[in-house]
Design brief:
This protein has helices spanning 26-37, 41-46, 56-71, 88-95, 101-119, 134-143, 163-171, 194-204, 228-237, 245-255, 268-276, 294-304, and strands at residues 2-6, 81-84, 124-131, 147-153, 156-162, 177-181, 215-216, 259-262, 284-287, 314-320, 325-329, 338-339, 344-350, 353-358, 363-368, 374-376, 381-388. By secondary structure, it is of the alpha+beta class. The protein has three domains: 2-113 and 190-304, Malonyl-Coenzyme A Acyl Carrier Protein, domain 2; 120-182, Malonyl-CoA ACP transacylase, ACP-binding (Alpha-Beta Plaits, 2-Layer Sandwich); 316-386, OB fold (Dihydrolipoamide Acetyltransferase, E2P) (Beta Barrel). Keywords: Acyltransferase, Transferase.
């Protein structure tokens, strides 16, 4: 099983888009997206220096555009899973079919501008806490009036909040940890970003999303999201909610992902996956930074998709588990049954009670992928729905 990952803020490098502009149509596409985002993506990806592309208002649409531009040159119909870190979730949602590329770019432009404006309201920032006991780290962050904005796994938690709180954390780090201030404009993914969340919600309300065509993981809790409207709501909420990339990686492991491609500008997420998913055999990883990396990425897809690199005649959709628990399929449903959108096909028994599993599309119940009383993880495929494309 193959996953494609879309990176977040901080992964950008000066000039990283330059080699991509040699591909036919790439510059024209970027100029069209620039009009939607309200920034010059061609300039930012080629000539701009590190300081200019550090600006939140510019960085966010630039990263989403870069990921979508790179993915256009991949056979994405063979990809089973998409996920993105922070603003990268907009790119992942577009690649999963929830948003048109134009909507993802537009939302990234609004998100970047509004988060930059929120950062200017009062002095806030972020700091990475590396190492230490996880519970002690979280307790220290809370004790200083800060928020755990990113939980990235591999012994890395990013604290965010008021500058004086960050300074106190740096002078009194948790045992066996070190604190590194990050060069960012403010406290992303905390309540300080509430004005940006409200502004993004106003724009996102005008979008008509589609349900995901592949497994799409959410930063909110690492779960797979079945419905497009819910994913848009999560994208908006993510502006003030912590990024739980640790839970996304846990779901990648639970799904049995064997191959990972990180889209341009690649490296950060690949490093986290490599460190975190050691047990049971680490996935094979390709970092897609330039067009020279495309052959390796396409080869990885061909070997890990299970579809042999050919676009299928039948279009399949996978229904995935919304939670951890044990699965019970609906007794009356056998393989080959006709399903309608929204039909209950079973339930997952969790500690909090049963959670319904519904079909997000109409079609034939082609195959049960989980059976009665099987233990399931969030995002685990439960059934395959087929329909002629």
């Amino acid at each position: 099983m193959l996953a494609v990952l879309s990176p977040g803020q901080g992964s950008q490098k000066p000039g990283f888009l330059t080699p991509w502009l040699d591909l036919p149509g790439a510059e024209a596409r970027l100029r069209w997206w620039s009009a939607l985002a309200g920034v010059d993506l061609v300039h930012l990806g080629t000539d701009a220096d590190a300081e200019e592309i550090k600006d939140t208002a510019r960085t966010q649409p630039l990263l989403v555009a870069a990921a979508l531009l790179a993915a256009e040159h991949l056979p994405m119909y063979d990809v089973a899973v998409t996920a993105g870190h922070s603003v990268g979730e907009l790119g992942a949602a577009a690649l999963a079919g929830v948003l048109p590329a134009e909507a993802a770019i537009t939302l990234a432009g609004v998100r970047g501008r509004e988060m930059a404006a929120a950062c200017a309201l009062e002095p806030t920032g972020m700091a990475a806490v590396l190492g230490g006991d996880p519970d002690e780290v979280l307790a220290a962050i809370e004790a200083h009036g800060l928020y755990p904005a990113n939980r990235n796994g591999a012994g890395q938690v990013v604290a965010a909040g008021a500058v004086d709180g960050l300074e106190k954390l740096a002078t009194e780090p948790p045992a066996k940890s070190r604190v590194i201030r990050l060069q960012v404009a403010g406290a992303f993914h905390t309540p300080y970003m509430a004005p940006a969340e409200a502004a993004l919600a106003g724009v996102a309300a005008g979008i008509t999303p589609s349900d995901p065509a592949r497994i799409l993981l959410s930063n909110l809790d690492g779960s797979a999201v079945n419905h497009g409207r819910e994913m848009v709501q999560r994208l908006v909420r993510q502006v003030t909610a912590p990024v739980r990339w640790d839970l996304c990686m846990r779901t990648l492991a639970d799904l049995g992902v064997t191959g990972v491609i990180e889209l341009a500008p690649a490296g950060t997420l690949a490093g986290l996956v490599k460190r975190e998913l050691k047990a049971g055999g680490a996935p094979e990883i390709v970092t897609l930074n330039t067009p020279d990396d495309l052959p390796a990425a396409r080869d990885l897809i061909a070997r890990h998709s299970g579809l042999g690199g050919h676009e299928p005649v039948i279009q399949f959709r996978v229904v995935v588990s919304p939670a951890a628990g044990t699965f019970t399929p609906a007794e009356e449903l056998a393989e080959g049954a006709d399903l309608r959108t929204g039909q209950v096909i079973g339930h997952v028994t969790t500690r909090q009670g049963p959670v319904e599993v519904t079909a997000h599309d109409s079609g034939l119940l082609t195959e049960w992928l989980a059976h009665h009383d099987d233990p399931v993880a969030p995002g685990q495929p439960l059934a395959r729905i087929g329909g002629h494309a």
